[in-house]
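Action item from last meeting closed. Structure (88 res):
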């Protein structure tokens, strides 16, 4: 998996291993997995991952991240990386 340089202001939400890239015939999709304690949608705290068309869009999406109060996030310290993305 390629490594990306994550800007310092986003490092509390993700690290290099938080981004999965899926390639198909037409394009690539970047899936970003937030660390425990954060979510993308305030109304639906279980939204811990999002798909984007580019890395630039993926990083821009981190400007609208919220603290999460779901049961899974309550079990882990704030900011703990998600270890196994395929079984998160």
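Sequence:
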């Amino acid at each position: 998996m390629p490594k990306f340089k994550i800007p310092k202001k986003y490092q509390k939400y993700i690290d290099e291993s938080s981004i999965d890239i899926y390639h198909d015939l037409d394009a690539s999709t970047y899936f970003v997995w937030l660390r425990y304690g954060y979510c993308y949608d305030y109304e639906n705290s279980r939204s811990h991952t999002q798909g984007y068309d580019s890395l630039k869009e993926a990083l821009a999406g981190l400007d609208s991240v919220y603290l999460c109060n779901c049961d899974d996030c309550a079990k882990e310290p704030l900011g703990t990386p998600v270890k196994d993305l395929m079984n998160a």
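Note appended to the action item: The helical segments are 55-60, 71-74.
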